[in-house]
Amino acid sequence: MSLKSEALAQKAQSRKAVKYSRECEVCGKKPQTGHLVSHSNIKTNRAFNPNLQKVRHQKANGEVVTLCVCTRCIRSGAVTKPVARKA
User: Fold this and answer.
1) What is the distance between the alpha carbons of residues 85 and 87, in angstroms, rounded to a whole number?
2) Model-level pTM?
3) Distance, C-alpha 40 to centroid of its chain
4) Kind and range of the H or E element at 43?
5) Closest Cα partner for 20 from 46, 49, 62, 58?
6) 3-class DSSP state for residue 11?
7) Helix, strand, or coil here: 71?
8) pLDDT along the chain (87 residues), means of 10
9) What per-residue confidence (pLDDT) applies to 2?
10) How far apart are CA 71 and CA 65, in angstroms?
11) Secondary element (H or E) of residue 36
């Protein structure tokens, strides 16, 4: 393998190893619990998970990082998306 392909393989493997929790990295929104109510009014437990998306965020110093944030943070402008990737 060439040096470039080894570096790409290592980068891809490290990316797969990242596990995100069900928590927004900006506002801290987590799953909430509640009930699923049937037509006969039987209540069973369920979880309401936040709508989390992986987004590339550009910090003030220009560094680009990937964050797991809820759609409300994206919509409100709490995350600054980078202009374009350098080819």
Assistant:
1) 6
2) 0.66
3) 37
4) strand 43-48
5) 49
6) helix
7) helix
8) 58 60 93 97 97 93 93 93 77
9) 59
10) 17
11) strand 32-37
